[in-house]
């Protein structure tokens, strides 16, 4: 058994499904959810699936919630909580930029610090970050989100080096475009902006997430393996078929030239694609 596994952001998406699967296999899981209403909702879903799952309110940006988590004797931590703010870098309001980093970077690291110290003193533990392919590459209109995930990548890499001698392992999960609703709602956050729409550079009602999206099953399965220590790799780019493309994209950065003044293909695709477009089965 992996010991007590804490999963943040378990009120929906990857986190919820991974928590339910681990609990179904008899593991001691704490599903941390952002708001109190999600506690009863996730508990109800666990009952429907016949699963014993502990659900706790854990907003990673709330100091009180983070302090309470110190009483849980966590041996495996999945930093999964995250939000995605879509929009051009020149348009996103300041408070939304700050929120992006508070939820995706600052809150998770402040939660990780005391838990990691305990793991180090115990000389065992596992810390996993739900990062993204956006932690390695960047698309138009995802600059804020990608910047937060690049920051996550930096912290994870540093922690992996710093905690090695203490018996603590670190890993990242790097999902590409998966059809969970997360990517599509990223392109609807502009509806909550408190700014002057006339000052925006883009009309966000005309844009959508510029990628076809995959079924999320590979992320669920891979994350379970990583949390249980069954997969010893540091980075897990999913789906695997994207890895050659991402490697090529990263290598091309060394020879990249200034833009030529024309609209890039992915910007145009954001205008052309319909929301929630799935990847076509071959």
From TrEMBL:
Name used for this protein in its record: Short-chain dehydrogenase
InterPro entries: KR_dom, NAD(P)-bd_dom_sf, SDR_fam
Keywords: Oxidoreductase
Domain Ketoreductase: residue ranges: 3-181
Upper classification of the organism: Bacteria, Bacillati, Actinomycetota, Actinomycetes, Kitasatosporales
Membership in a protein family: Belongs to the short-chain dehydrogenases/reductases (SDR) family.
UniProt superkingdom: Bacteria
Transcription regulation listed as a keyword: no
Annotated SMART domains: PKS_KR
């Amino acid at each position: 058994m992996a010991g007590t596994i804490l999963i943040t952001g378990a009120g929906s998406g990857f986190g919820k499904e991974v928590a339910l699967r681990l609990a179904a296999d008899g593991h001691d899981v704490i599903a941390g959810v952002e708001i109190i209403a999600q506690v009863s909702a996730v508990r109800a879903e666990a009952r429907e699936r016949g699963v014993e799952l502990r659900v706790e309110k854990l907003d990673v940006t709330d100091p009180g919630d983070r302090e309470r988590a110190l009483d849980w004797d966590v041996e495996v931590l999945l930093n999964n909580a995250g939000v995605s703010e879509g929009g051009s870098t020149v348009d996103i309001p300041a408070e939304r930029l700050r929120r992006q980093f508070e939820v995706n970077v600052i809150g998770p690291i402040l939660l990780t610090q005391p838990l990691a110290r305990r793991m180090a003193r115990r000389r065992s533990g596992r810390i996993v970050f739900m990062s993204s392919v956006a932690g390695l590459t960047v698309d138009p209109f995802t600059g804020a989100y990608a910047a937060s995930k690049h920051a996550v990548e930096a912290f994870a890499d540093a922690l992996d080096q710093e905690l090695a001698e203490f018996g603590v392992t670190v890993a990242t999960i790097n999902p590409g475009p998966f059809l969970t609703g997360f990517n599509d709602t990223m392109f609807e956050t502009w509806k909550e902006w408190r700014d002057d729409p006339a000052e925006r550079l883009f009309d966000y009602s005309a844009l959508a997430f510029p990628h076809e999206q995959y079924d999320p099953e590979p992320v669920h399965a891979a994350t379970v393996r990583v949390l249980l220590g069954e997969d010893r790799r540091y980075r897990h780019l999913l789906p695997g078929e994207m890895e050659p493309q991402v490697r090529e994209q990263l290598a091309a950065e060394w020879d990249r030239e200034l833009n030529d003044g024309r609209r890039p293909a992915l910007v145009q695709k954001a205008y052309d694609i319909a929301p929630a477009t799935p990847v076509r089965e071959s």
